[in-house]
Amino acid sequence: MKKTYKLQNLCCASCAAKIENALNKLDFIDSATVNVMTQKLILETENQDSDFLINQVQKIIRKYEPDCKILL
Which residues, including other chains, have CB under 8 Å from residue 46's CB and lie 6 or more apart? Predict the structure, then answer.
């Protein structure tokens, strides 16, 4: 399932690349793309537990870009 999320306060292309690489290493994410220009995160996953998914993704995002958050 493909899910698109809007990101707020993602301002560094280098951080976006680090976030994308970290997300792509997770077992429960098939593919992750972070676009700093559009402030979007696109995830492809079969994980049906969206609360778990959002929490794990947000932890990784905050590791590299502390002020960035996912807008639901």
Answer: 1, 28, 30
